[in-house]
Amino acid sequence: MTLGEKLKTARKNSGLTQEQLAVKLGVSRQAISKWESDNGLPDVENLRLLSKLLGVSIDYLLDDGNTLDVAVIREAIDLSLYDKGRKKVKKDKIVREKYPDAEIRTLIGSQVPTKGEKVIDIGLGILLAFGIPDLINGVNNLGKEFYLVNQGNKQFLVVVTDEFIESRQLAQAITEKKFRIGDFSFVDCGPIVYA
Fold this sequence. Notes:
By secondary structure, this protein is of the alpha+beta class. 40% of the residues lie in helices and 26% in strands. The radius of gyration is 19 Å and the shape is elongated.
């Protein structure tokens, strides 16, 4: 999917016309039309604003491999309300409570290093014998649990941290054991184990 196609889809999913989006950005409707038909590119500032207004990441807009999230919902959670035990078990319970009638699959997720991080990793990795970007990404994602939830004809990527649960309804169904969404790669580890 091209940048223009992604912009058009995200704009429509946000319920905006080209004119309404143009007003919010402070540009002409013709500029929006040019961007959506791939006859022009928004500058960096407009990309940032488009990302915020349309609820999609800049990475999504610029990366050919992403699928558009239909909806993203983030809710605060309080792990202390759950019985004593490992955080993973508590997070599993939170997902089961939110989606009681769904098939819930546990995922292992890891952030894919950018091209710049790979270059740094190769240079420093020779000296240090381990991946600096992998280490940094691992620390950044420490405490996150990932789930793939199948509920009726809808599918959600769910992330649970110590502070919130975030559910992203996916536009395209994931059926592979290994897949990528945005700058994360995932491995499906099977259905959640009920305690």
